[in-house]
Structures are given as structure tokens and as C-alpha cells.
Amino acid sequence: MGNVTHPDTCQAAVFDGVGQPIRMATFPLVEPPAGHVLAKVRMATICGSDLHSVSGRRIEPAPSILGHEIVAQVVELGEGVSESANGAALEQGDRVTFTIMASCGGCENCRAGLPQKCESLFKYGHTRIGDGLALSGGYAEYLYLRPGTGIFHVPTELSDKEVCPANCALATVINGLETIEVNAGDRVLVQGCGLLGLYCTMLLKERNVSEIVVTDVADGRLDAARNMGADETLNVTGMDDQKLIGALGKGRFDCVVEVCGNPSVVRPGIQALGLRGRYLIMGLLSAGSNFTVDADTIARHYLTIKGIHNYAPWHLAQGLDFLARTRSRFDFKSLVGAVMPLSDAGRAFEEAATGSAVRVAIVP
Q1: Could you give the C-alpha distances from 69 to 29, 50, 103, 235, 350, in angstroms and in order?
Q2: CA dihedral 149, 153, 158, 160 (to 10 degrees)
Q3: % the chain with pLDDT above 90
Q4: Model confidence over 311-359: pLDDT tens digits?
Q5: Contacts of 324 (CB under 8 A, 6+ apart)
Q6: Domain for residue 258, yes or no?
Q7: In this predicted structure, what is the pLDDT of residue 287?
């Protein structure tokens, strides 16, 4: 592993608010306080939520350092830190990824198995500069990992590109499929094939469900879904509910997974469920995502509707295991397109906003 040293200062890309250009700024580097870890960022990918923050679709505190899909290298361990989340020795030079949040471990939600809903939750890339250590986002040369973060070693066979988006989308989908209880032999409809939908398709393929159908409005994303294991894809551009159900088949599916963020898909998705079907909401995370569903349909068909948000540390551990186990089966590297230097963070956001790649990466 060798020794890893660091300078007295580092650079980070700062988000000052909607409509403001991303700017570079200098921040001091100090020894990590007790319970903290100083890490050098190797790669950070631009998540859809980052694009929503910059565009104003979601309101984030500013100024801040965005970025939460990160692979990093341990530089210095604060007092009391010696192990990863699964008990392995944590040492200087280790390549790691980590949960998008830090949790207290002791509040009611943490004790109930929902650390992602901790009463004192801290989220990387979502914190205003000035609220403690400023370096808490991925679009920087270094950052500090706080107590309560689930830190995991990156398997040596996996590249940064393969791992970087896993600590957001992949871990979230694993939580979702666990929550909605997808089983081998199920017929599953996936509504949307951004990164959540693509990971969902791959996970379903590995679970040996009997049928995977994916819908979207972009042919390029649908092509990617077929490459990742979808049995059937459907471009739903311009389809009303009646035409969509006619194309999908009423009562055809055991489970429907919403990962597109458009509330208009919920009603036809529920109509596509058979008896005792399950509907999972993962993408509708913007305020005002309202939809209307006939409760008679839910009651008469014994339907279940559930929602999830983010994930727990063990879901990230499962995600890393999935990547290592199936990397010869799925082309995870293809999910990351352009790789740009930190100094071009503004241009990287512009590139990500075009949708030309599932993810754009920033490297210091």
C-alpha cells in the first residue's frame, strides 16, 4: 500500500446556487478529527440528483461541494478508526467506497434498521460549506469521512469506473428489490432505464425472473437495457394509458418497479399488475409527484404499493459483491462515459446534462 501524503490545501468545485457557474476554490487540509478519515478522491460520477440540484429541480444548501458517488483512497485515519463497516482492517492507502450518508446508530430509526433515515443524518455532497468540515463532497481532491459512515474496501479486480456509481444507484436498487420481494420466476416491468433501471435489469437477470420488460422514452437507453438483459423493451413516447396497457398487457406482471421519476407512469403500471402484484416506487422523489389510482383496483386485486429511499450499509456491501461476481457477465464500465478533470467540473456537468452517457466522471 505504501505511504500516502497530502498537501496543506486542496482544490474543490463549489456550487453556489442555481444559475451560478461551478467555481474552483482552495480549502485547507488538516488532520482528521477523532472518528474521521481523510481520503483522496480517485473518481466521482455525476448523479442525476446532482444535475437536479444545479438546475433547481431540487433545492440544496449552497455554497456546497456536490458529489456522492465516489471511489477514494484512505490518506489518514483519525483516532478510533481502524476497521471498515464489515470489520476488515482499514489502513492508509486502501481503496474504498462508502455510504452516501453517515448515521448515528442509536436513534429510533437506526435501531429499526433504517440508518438512511437517521434522526441526525449527514449526506455527502448535500451539505452547505460552513457546517463543519467543508470537504464533504466528491468533486474535490480530498474529503473527510465522518463517524457513522459505512466504509468498504473496493475489490481489487474492480476498476474505479465499475464501482463509482454503485454507492448510490446500485445499492438503492438492491434495497428496493429486497423491500418489494422480487423472486425467481416473477414477471417484472421496469419503468425507466436510467442508471437505476439498468442496474435493476441486471439484478433481475441474475435473480432468474421469468420475464423482464423495460419501458422508456429514449431508444438509446432501451438499447442499453437489452444489452443488460431485458427480454423486451418498449418506447412509450406519446402513449396514453389505454394504448400502453394494450401494448404491455393488463394484469401481466407480478411486480412493477418505477425508476423514471414521472408520476404519470403509476396508473398504467398498477393496471399492468396481476393478482397480488407489487408496485415499487423509487424514482418519484420530487415534491408534487402526485398520481391518482382507483382504490377499488388495489383492494380487489390484493395489490401492494411500497416506496423506498436510499439504502443501508449492507446494501452497498451486497452491491460490491454483485459487481465482483458478475463483471464478466455485465459491462459495468460502459455505464461511465466521459472522464474529465476536476478543473473542468463545469463542463462535466454540461456534458452530463446532455444525456449522452449514463454517467460522466470527474477525476482530480
Answers
A1: 21, 10, 17, 29, 18
A2: 50
A3: 93
A4: 999 999 999 999 999 999 999 999 999 999 999 999 999 999 998 899 9
A5: 155, 157, 158
A6: yes
A7: 85
CB count, 10 Å around CB of 194? 21
Judge whether residue 132 has pLDDT over 90: no
**318 lies in some domain:** no
In-domain check, residue 322: no
Which of helix, strand or coil describes residue 343? helix
Domain count, the chain: 2
Q: Which DSSP symbol is given to 62?
A: S
* Co-location of 153 and 180 in the same domain: no
Which cell numbers in the block locate residue 94? 486502501
Q: For residue 175, give the CATH number of its domain.
A: 3.40.50.720
Q: What is the C-alpha to C-alpha distance for residues 351 and 337, in angstroms, rounded to an integer?
A: 10
Average pLDDT, the chain: 95
Q: Do 17 and 150 belong together in one domain?
A: yes
Task: Give the Cα separation of 259 and 248 in Å (integer).
Answer: 17
Q: CA nearest 285: which of 163, 189, 194, 362?
A: 194
Judgement on whether residues 115 and 181 belong to the same structural domain of the protein: no
Q: Are residues 240 and 295 in the same domain?
A: yes
Residues 233 and 146 in one domain: no
152-171 exposure pattern, b = at least 16 Cβ within 10 A, e = fewer: bbbeeebebbbbbbbbbbbb
Q: pLDDT tens digits for 55-113? A: 988 888 899 999 999 999 999 999 999 999 999 999 999 999 999 999 999 999 999 99
Residue 204 lies in a domain: yes
pLDDT band at 3 (very low <50, low <70, confident <90, very high): low
Q: Which amino acid is at 255?
A: C
Tell me the sheet residues that pair with 338: none
Per the structure, the complete domain to which residue 197 belongs is given by 170-307
Q: Cα 261–263–267 angle (5° rounding)?
A: 130
CATH of the domain at 92: 3.90.180.10
Q: Are strands 359-363 and 336-341 parallel, antiparallel or unpaired?
A: parallel
